[in-house]
Structure formats: structure tokens, C-alpha cells
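Progress report, Aim 2. The chain analyzed during this reporting quarter is listed below.
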Amino acid sequence: MTTHGGSEPVFCTIVPPHVLDRLARNEDPALSGPARRSLQRDAMERTRRRLTTVVGAPAVAPPAGKQAEQPHRTIYDARHGTDLPGTKVRSEGQQPGKDATVNRAYSGLGATFELYLKAYGRDSIDGSGLPLDATVHYDEKYNNAFWNGEQMVFGDGDGEVFLDFTLPVDVIGHELTHGVTQHTANLAYFGQSGALNESVSDVFGSLIKQYTLGQSAGEADWLIGAGLLAPRVTGTALRSMKAPGTAYDDDVLGKDPQPATMDDYVHTGSDNGGVHINSGIPNHAFYLVATAIGGHAWEKAGQIWYDVLTGGKLKEDADFADFATLTVQAARERYGAGDALQAVQKAWEQVKVRTR
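Predicted C-alpha cells for the chain:
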């Protein structure tokens, strides 16, 4: 993993720790057991990530013969173990096999690659053709998916609360976008900068799903992780960008804690200062921008967010106001004093984030 300015290493999972913490305290061992094991595995991977940052991750070059602006995907099977990457089961260009999880991972990596290339001219996660590797069937009943700085990793879920983590393409796009952030703004994973880190991944994860489905901003569901929750769970997804705080309300998971505006900003020492919770505020701002502009959200709204992420002005410790101010500047520079600029300004006003 690359670092910039000596920032702390980032280990990012799609399921927030506060959700697994709650499950781990459940009296039913079918729920608490997998959650506890998942938390333990996350802690071990977080330590491994930190050590990789200290000693330096090996540089990965595009393979010989790889064509420019073409994906290079490799899918591995951990076979319910934890040694990474596992056994190679599908390489770039090979036809789909019988394992649907392998096929979904392969397709999701491709969908993410395509959105970044076609919409923003970015060649893979690092902009220089980085090979995209993923491991499926990680550990036993592992309730998470993560980007570890070098590759994607997917659990199968416990079947009680979470299903296969390759099911929602936006989960794949979310985690890979942590890699894009790692290679660009490298937002520090704490407090508001950490919530921005999470929000950027939600934004582009949602855009990847919308791009894959050919949806307009008005047609999109703006849910993150729809299809991931098992039938017993009262909820639709992990998060809602359209209506933060409404994704689930369940006797086991509790109620979605995300705020939609700064009026309900959550001050907490857990989850790195609430990075998965307060990300609802910039998430909702993007939703408001995209739906106000209309059309395909990855075009104007997504371009503004991408310009800020990659423009070199976004500091690692940026807060919401810093990010909002840069989106206003980016909208003006790219689109002038028109509807896009007005949509950006109004959205941040609605979520109660002041621009400087």
C-alpha cells in the first residue's frame, strides 16, 4: 500500500464494526458466533495491513502483453480458509464456470474497471493498469468484504443475517473505490475525513451499479448493499443515500444510525469516529446533487466528485466543509455558473454543511 504524508493505514470493510459488535452480543450462537469470528478476522487483517504499510507492499506491474485500458482480472478461491490469495480459479478472458460467486466477482471487477475508464478515463484503480485480484469463499461464514490495499476479499456470509458478499455489485465497487482513494487523496480514516473516505466509496459504488443497469438518477434505488441482507432481516440494505437512517430497522441489527444532515451528526469514539455513520451526510448531499441535475449520475455529478478526489487539492485530513467547498469550485470550473453549480450549492445547504 502506498501512503502519503505518513497517514495511518486504512482497513475498510463494507459491514461497519458497530453492526458486527451488536450481532456478537446476541444470545443466539448462530448469530453471535460468525459475527465474533468476523470481528476477530477483521482485527487480524487490520494488523496485517498496518504491517504491510510499515514494510512496504510489493509493487505490482501490469503483466507482459496486457493491452492498455483493458482489465486484468484474476479470481482466487480461499476454500473457506484465510490464506491469501488462495487457488486461482479464473483468469482474464476465461469463460464463466459453475461457481456463481466466482463469476459475480469477475463481473463486478469488470464493471468497476469499465465505469472508471469510460466515464473518467482512469485505467484501473491506480490509473496505470493495476491488475485486479479477488479472493472468494474467504473463511467460514465470514460476514464481510474488504480491500486490503492489494486485492479484494469476499466472505460468503453466515446465511442468517448476511448472504454472499459478491451479490451486490455496488459492494464490489465500494471496496475497490477505497483503492482509488488510496492512490489519490488518501483520505485519513478517522472522523470527518474518514466519513468522506467511506462516502466516496458509497458514491462510486452506487454509480457503478447505476452504470451497469443503465439507470438514471431518478430510476436508481440509491441503496448500498441491496440484496445482501438475509430474508429474516427487516431491512433493504446496509445504507440508503436517498434517506440515510432508513436502510434497516431490525430486532437483531437495530436501527440504521446514519444521519442525513449535520443536525444529527454523531459524535462517537467507536468506528474510527463514526466513519460509517456520518458518511450519510455527504452521501445524501451527492444524492441531492445527482437527482437535481438529472440524467445519468455518473456524468455531471460523478464527474464533480471525481475531479475533487483526484484534483490534488483535497487534503488527507479534509472535513466536510473542505470537501463541499472543493465540489463547488469543481462544478464552477467544469460547468460554469449553471444548474450543476446551483445543485451542488443547494445540496450542501440542505445537509447543513457550510462551504468556505
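The CA atoms of residues 84 and 298 lie 33 Å apart. The two ends are 33 Å apart (CA to CA). These observations will guide the mutagenesis work planned for the next reporting period.
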